[in-house]
Amino acid sequence: MSTAGSRGGPTVRVTVGSHGPHDEQEEGRRVSAATAVLDGARDAASDVDVVETGPTGADRWEPLVLCTLDGRTAYHANCDGARAKRLVEAVESGSLPTDGAAAVVEHGDSPESLPTPEDGPLSVGRRRVLARCGWATADDAPEPVPVTDAESVHERVAEVGLLGRGRGDAHRDESVADAWETAREEEGDPVVVVNANDRDPRNQADPLLLESDPASVVEAAALAADAVGATDVVVYTTADEFLRRRVREAVDALVDEGRLESRPQVVAGPDRYIAGEPTIALEALEGSDRIEARLTPPSPAVHGLYGRPTLVHTPRTFAQVRLALSNPEAFDPDDADPGTRLVSVTGDVDSPATVELPTGGSMSVVRDAVGFEGSPKMAVVGGQFGGFTTHLDHTVSSPALNAANLGTEGVVELFDEDKCPVATAGKRARFAQDENCGRCAPCREGTKQLVNLLREVYDGDYDDDMIRELARTMRATSTCGFGRNAGRTVDTAVNAFETEFRVHADGRCPAGECNVASREANR
């Protein structure tokens, strides 16, 4: 089987993926459009190797055709089938097509990872866990990590001080090694769950990894299973069949190479936002008719799937695990949040992008990945229930984001002057009211009260103290992350844009977004 780094001859790669903030029909169209480009390239090929890869994370360049010849790669963005055919014909003739290329990168022979351009969306940040995205095929297994025995794997992860990443991680912003140690010490047969069921369309980090480098994620999950003595690995995904196919291809390749002792299960979860919460994911995997959050403690590492000690980590966390095992020098164990963070950038942008930033780096560079000029009026950091901020002068480390009451879920939304913070906060409060699981009163009743308080703003009654106290109570007493974070958007919007809330109470919307129709929708 060929690997990403062993293609020494002329090669044309076509990025095919469904990820992006779109509905299922649009996702299907994206795959179909990229597949048409792939078909056009293959129709013209005789000697050139034409391969299908996953996306790079830079949506504004997709579908992307990468032509590699004699140590150089030309990037051709937004291709169609006819153009792909012409590009392949040029490579077939022994010429690298550079006219019209978005970038041309010189590199050594047979690079293992995507040669990164000096400019453009792919130049932002550091591509470490994203290194193979857009370059490797789904069945291209990466080079084996040098550390594979169970005790050494656990020790290496502990040494680098890795924290869990993403909303679906049961140990988000907490020590991964501590969770593993807990699972190892508990009685019972441990299990490992790769939680990739995130229905927040803004968050594209996990889908990107599973579409573009699934083998790295699956192998890291298997190594974690060995480290805690687990016999089962479950990859818990959305119902996206394209993504699941990529995962199955990676599993097949790793099994064929003898790098997996047992075959992981690939299971689709419910098409609901709450299905990505770690304990609700376990309820869904157990087939519960009504999925709702479990009380914690005990954590899933103590009492998880069918009562077994369970590690629940996101693909992002496992990608960092694999990086820690293969390149520990990339981590500073003295850092409060070692490694890198994946950030999906969306909002009022032409095309979203997912970038990888050092945890000590400034969030402000994300504008370069999406071509957002100037400073946004506001940004929401942390996904569906992220926090409002008026500037991007924050680092992306977990301690810094938490201290600023911003989310660590890995999403930055940029909004221009036409967006109203009151309307934006109101829409997310209604989402929380409609989508919560209903188990705990602080979330179930608190979200209703939050919506009512925002409706009263439009009626001229702005009670900022009540809004803040309600958000604080929800954060302190809700059962799961959904309820704990649901009030953050409103709370931070009030803090950052209190003047606009008071102006709305006087009957005016400075952004002009809250017209009569939208006011009625808030009632």
From TrEMBL:
GO molecular function per UniProt? 4 iron, 4 sulfur cluster binding; metal ion binding
Q: Where is the NADH-ubiquinone oxidoreductase 51kDa subunit iron-sulphur binding domain?
A: 422-467
Please give the residue ranges the record annotates as the region Disordered: 1-31
Query: Pfam families given for it?
Result: Complex1_51K (PF01512), NADH_4Fe-4S (PF10589)
Instruction: Tell me which UniProt keywords the record has, alphabetically.
Output: 4Fe-4S, Iron, Iron-sulfur, Metal-binding
List compositional bias (Basic and acidic residues) regions by residue number.
20-30
**Which family, according to UniProt?**
Belongs to the complex I 51 kDa subunit family.
The name under which this protein is listed is NADH-ubiquinone oxidoreductase-F iron-sulfur binding region domain-containing protein
What are the top taxonomic ranks of the organism? Archaea, Methanobacteriati, Methanobacteriota, Stenosarchaea group, Halobacteria
